[in-house]
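Complex 363.
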Amino acid sequence: MRTPVRNDVREGTRILKILLLAGDGIGPEIMAEAERVLAALDLPVTLDRALVGGAAYEATGHPLPPETLAKAKAADAILFGAVGDPRFDAVERHLRPEQAILGLRSELGLFANLRPAKLFPGLEDSSALRPEVAAAIDLLIVRELNGDVYFGEKGLRTTANGEREGYDVMSYSESEVRRIAHVAFRAAQGRQGRLCSVDKANVLETSQLWRDVVIEVAKDYPGVELSHMYVDNAAMQLVRNPGQFDVVVTGNLFGDILSDQASMCVGSIGLLASASLGEGTKGLYEPIHGSAPDIAGQGVANPLAMILSLAMLLRHSGGDEASAARIEAAVARVLADGCRGADLGGTMGTAALGDAVVAALRN
Ligand code: IPM
Ligand code: MG
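Predicted structure with magnesium ion bound:
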């Protein structure tokens, strides 16, 4: 992953081409708020839109239509809402809404998923953990995104005794581990200099190779303190003493699970943003939560993770640290002022929270 050019997009001549993929469920509602925040910043960007997920399947018969993929390839950055719709649960797996995000991640070579989790001041009592334990959380999960059981051979077969058997093959090649390890070590260099690699090397061959390769890569980063943890222990430590973690690097499946767990430690899954990056500055940015069909269309979804994903987009693909920091400061201010949606025990709706962030940006 190359470091993005650190010029402010305001000053440069570069116009950032952003593709908005709102998707399903609460996706369109929260995307609308991110767009309002973007409009308030008045940056040199162009916006395009396309269908994705269940919405695309309904309209075109495919969750990731060729036109959407082509637009994604042409864009500098993709802001992604959410996919998933229970109406399509019975559809063949390769046509389900979730395949759209998996397809984008693999087709665009977005192998490095950054999921920061930090407690916003004022949310100490919203965490599922004791306030003093939660207050110490400031970690970054670096999740590998193009391999593991997600992309291994999978299927349904019949065993010799006539039973149905499902299988999903877990594997990692050393080059896949090496490239994500480099991303994680570099991230640790820019933070507190501590990296914890999470695996299940006591049971899985895949994990043993993972650990061996991470140890090899560590030789290039003498300033970073490397530790290893089994995933079951990591899940336990994440609620016992999350303050011990700086950067965590792990595979696709373990990272999926641990990042949802980390979100409740900081108060709500509605607050966690993510960046999916490849070798260049192109990236896909999305909240880590899903489409939440149970609350879709009611105007009660928390738009903050979506808005924070926009901040990550401007930082990593736009090279615009100043605007990213402005958005993050506005979100922090809104939370410190006591603004809360239903997910945090409050009554503010999606648009009201968006209004509050836009107002905080202007102040
Ligand atoms: C995530 C989601 C996705 C994943 C789903 C929607 C396929 O849970 O981004 O964490 O499992 O990666
Ligand atoms: Mg997940």
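The first strand starts at residue 16 and ends at 23.
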